[in-house]
């Protein structure tokens, strides 16, 4: 242990601890901008400078290890003045459009200026104006607002294993950009939006599709259908000041109806359907010697990662479309026929925790007879903005139910939103099919939780099903390397592109205190697991609307009609 004094308080911390961490353990809150524990510990922004007795200059506490007998001041005159100058220098090059910025009131730079009492701009230098990169269907990049903290670079490289953005140039011309300054859509970006979530300011944001949705809602010729992903319902409330993990499903449905959607369906219904289709496909592959391990295909960030970085595994992907695409396809076929509506007049809007779904919905592979399954995707954040624009008092809305025919779901579907959820849902159904029983023990705890890679061998009847779960694409890459090298051997793998799964998708409410990310993920996941535990039906094959869909329309699981509408194939 190392003894030191911080602001006159004596403390003891393990060797190797940084001064920042030691201070925080004493509840001394040193400000940071670039720091991200375990991800971006680079001392770039210098906001965390402290005075160390005997040192010639101020030191960045986030990268400074403690030393025996060290005496640290975190709030001396020199420290305060240095931080103020640093902030003002950052402001001098930052485009200060707070009132119209997507991060207004949710910006770390704005918050720091307020906390540190910055009341003027002392430096007005020459500024370079950059063109805003709007080419990607998912992510908008505005270098005019970038403060060069490097957090997006580290997340993209270390957490997602992609590394498509980096520092370029020197001095005042330093930027964060792609190779050759290409648009994000021209490089191997997977549209995951994790860089948006980690950006302290508004330099990265989702491509906002609200206007297209309002336009459809205002067009009386269009039949506008909304569907909502599992993870949205346990996060949307945060945008209205509710505790993290609150289930706002009923209020969300009411809000969508008040916004003018003709029908509000539940993507959870299609998650149940995915389990039937994917479970049948898995059992078929095991029985008939098909390509194993089979890997889930519902996360579009993961699909794009697989296409760019591990395309030798494309044949391992399940041929199932992702649930929201399935629901879109069924809205324009099954539902349209039932209601006598021209599918061309149906506009399907998916409300998703995910920015990659924006890209996915435009993919040619996912059209049926030339028609898109889903016409627009908006994130949890964009839905919150629409609700605010419509001036609804969200907290006081009554609870409403999803609309019939594709609004019923089970506990298996709702847990899709957390890492391991798709696997657990699939195991519940596969186990019942293989044993011919209605099994009661259906909580598969080894696949739950935030460990980056989870593995389990599940004994079902005579078969030992070997499974693995990875979330965050860098973890997926590590898992695939193991499979490729013959170090591991599975029947079925679940991959979700975002760390934590959809609950921490690139379109979810921004967690301003990054230290709390894990805690927030756990609470959102707990919200989903609580819903599951309380639902009367917890296995996808028990969903009565799914049974009706097969009886009335699809026929067999994996049958001809199901393949036409619900499956696809990704090629190199
Ligand atoms: Fe997801 Fe999915 S779970 S991908 O994480 O399979 O986005 O929530 O909607 O489509 O159902 C996201 C969440 C979501 C799909 C489902
Ligand atoms: Fe990297 Fe994902 Fe951001 Fe693309 S969207 S730049 S892959 S973090």
TrEMBL record:
<dbReference type="InterPro" id="IPR013352">
    <property type="entry name" value="Fe_hydrogenase_subset"/>
</dbReference>
<dbReference type="Pfam" id="PF12838">
    <property type="entry name" value="Fer4_7"/>
</dbReference>
<dbReference type="Pfam" id="PF02256">
    <property type="entry name" value="Fe_hyd_SSU"/>
</dbReference>
<dbReference type="Pfam" id="PF10588">
    <property type="entry name" value="NADH-G_4Fe-4S_3"/>
</dbReference>
<dbReference type="InterPro" id="IPR003149">
    <property type="entry name" value="Fe_hydrogenase_ssu"/>
</dbReference>
<dbReference type="InterPro" id="IPR017896">
    <property type="entry name" value="4Fe4S_Fe-S-bd"/>
</dbReference>
<dbReference type="InterPro" id="IPR036010">
    <property type="entry name" value="2Fe-2S_ferredoxin-like_sf"/>
</dbReference>
<dbReference type="Pfam" id="PF13510">
    <property type="entry name" value="Fer2_4"/>
</dbReference>
<dbReference type="InterPro" id="IPR001041">
    <property type="entry name" value="2Fe-2S_ferredoxin-type"/>
</dbReference>
<dbReference type="InterPro" id="IPR019574">
    <property type="entry name" value="NADH_UbQ_OxRdtase_Gsu_4Fe4S-bd"/>
</dbReference>
<feature type="domain" description="4Fe-4S ferredoxin-type">
    <location>
        <begin position="180"/>
        <end position="209"/>
    </location>
</feature>
<feature type="domain" description="2Fe-2S ferredoxin-type">
    <location>
        <begin position="1"/>
        <end position="78"/>
    </location>
</feature>
<keyword id="KW-0004">4Fe-4S</keyword>
<dbReference type="InterPro" id="IPR017900">
    <property type="entry name" value="4Fe4S_Fe_S_CS"/>
</dbReference>
<dbReference type="InterPro" id="IPR049830">
    <property type="entry name" value="HndD"/>
</dbReference>
<dbReference type="InterPro" id="IPR036991">
    <property type="entry name" value="Fe_hydrogenase_ssu_sf"/>
</dbReference>
<dbReference type="InterPro" id="IPR009016">
    <property type="entry name" value="Fe_hydrogenase"/>
</dbReference>
<dbReference type="Pfam" id="PF02906">
    <property type="entry name" value="Fe_hyd_lg_C"/>
</dbReference>
<keyword id="KW-0411">Iron-sulfur</keyword>
<protein>
    <submittedName>
        <fullName>[FeFe] hydrogenase, group A</fullName>
    </submittedName>
</protein>
<feature type="domain" description="4Fe-4S His(Cys)3-ligated-type">
    <location>
        <begin position="78"/>
        <end position="117"/>
    </location>
</feature>
<keyword id="KW-0479">Metal-binding</keyword>
<feature type="domain" description="4Fe-4S ferredoxin-type">
    <location>
        <begin position="137"/>
        <end position="167"/>
    </location>
</feature>
<dbReference type="InterPro" id="IPR050340">
    <property type="entry name" value="Cytosolic_Fe-S_CAF"/>
</dbReference>
<dbReference type="InterPro" id="IPR004108">
    <property type="entry name" value="Fe_hydrogenase_lsu_C"/>
</dbReference>
<keyword id="KW-0408">Iron</keyword>
């Amino acid at each position: 242990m190392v003894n030191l004094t911080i602001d006159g308080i004596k403390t003891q911390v393990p060797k190797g601890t940084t001064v920042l961490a030691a201070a925080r353990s004493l509840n001394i809150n040193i400000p940071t901008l670039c720091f991200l524990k375990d991800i971006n510990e680079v001392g770039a922004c210098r906001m965390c400078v402290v005075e160390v007795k005997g040192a010639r200059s101020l030191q960045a506490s986030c990268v400074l290890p403690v030393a025996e007998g060290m005496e640290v001041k975190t709030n001396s005159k020199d420290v305060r003045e240095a931080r103020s100058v640093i902030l003002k220098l950052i402001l001098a090059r930052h485009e200060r459009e707070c009132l119209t910025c997507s991060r207004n009131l949710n910006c770390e730079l704005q918050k720091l200026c307020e906390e540190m009492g910055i009341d003027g701009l002392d430096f007005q230098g020459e500024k370079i104006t950059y063109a805003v990169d709007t080419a990607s269907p998912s992510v908008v990049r505005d270098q005019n607002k970038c403060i060069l903290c490097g957090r997006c670079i580290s997340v993209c490289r270390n957490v997602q294993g992609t590394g498509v953005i980096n520092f370029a140039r020197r001095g005042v011309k330093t930027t964060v950009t792609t190779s050759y300054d290409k648009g994000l859509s021209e490089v191997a970006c997977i549209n995951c939006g994790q860089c948006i979530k980690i950006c302290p300011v508004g330099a990265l944001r989702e491509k906002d599709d609200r206007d297209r949705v309002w336009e459809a809602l205002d067009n009386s010729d269009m039949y506008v259908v909304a569907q909502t992903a599992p993870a949205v319902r346990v996060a949307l409330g945060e945008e209205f000041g509710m505790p993290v993990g609150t289930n706002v499903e009923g209020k969300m449905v009411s809000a969508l109806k008040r916004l003018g959607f003709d029908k509000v369906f539940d993507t959870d219904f299609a998650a149940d359907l995915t389990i039937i289709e994917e479970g049948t496909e898995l059992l078929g592959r095991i029985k008939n010697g098909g390509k194993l391990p089979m890997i889930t295909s519902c996360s579009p960030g993961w699909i794009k990662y697989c296409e760019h970085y591990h395309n030798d595994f494309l044949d391992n992907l399940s041929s199932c479309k992702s649930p929201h695409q399935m629901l879109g396809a069924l809205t324009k076929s099954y539902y349209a026929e039932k209601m006598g509506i021209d599918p061309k007049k149906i506009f399907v809007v998916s409300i998703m925790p995910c920015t990659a779904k924006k890209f996915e919905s435009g993919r040619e592979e996912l059209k049926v007879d030339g028609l898109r399954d889903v016409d627009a995707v908006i994130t949890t954040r964009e839905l919150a903005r629409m609700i605010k624009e419509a001036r609804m008092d969200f907290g006081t809305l009554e609870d409403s139910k999803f609309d019939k025919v594709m609004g019923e779901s089970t506990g298996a579907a709702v847990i899709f939103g957390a890492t391991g959820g798709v696997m657990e849902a699939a195991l519940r159904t596969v186990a019942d099919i293989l044993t011919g029983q209605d099994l009661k023990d259906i909580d598969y705890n080894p696949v739950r939780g935030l460990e980056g890679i989870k593995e389990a061998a599940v004994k079902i009847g005579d078969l030992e099903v070997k499974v693995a779960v990875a979330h965050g694409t860098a973890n997926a890459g590590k898992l695939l390397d193991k499979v490729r090298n013959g170090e591991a051997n599975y029947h079925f793998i679940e991959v979700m592109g975002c760390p934590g799964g959809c609950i921490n998708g690139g379109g979810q409410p921004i967690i301003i205190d990054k230290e709390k990310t894990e805690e927030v993920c756990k609470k959102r996941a707990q919200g989903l697991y609580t819903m599951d535990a309380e639902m009367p039906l917890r296995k996808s094959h028990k969903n009565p609307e799914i049974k009706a869909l097969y009886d009335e329309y699809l026929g067999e699981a994996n049958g001809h009609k199901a393949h036409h509408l619900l499956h696809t194939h990704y090629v190199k």
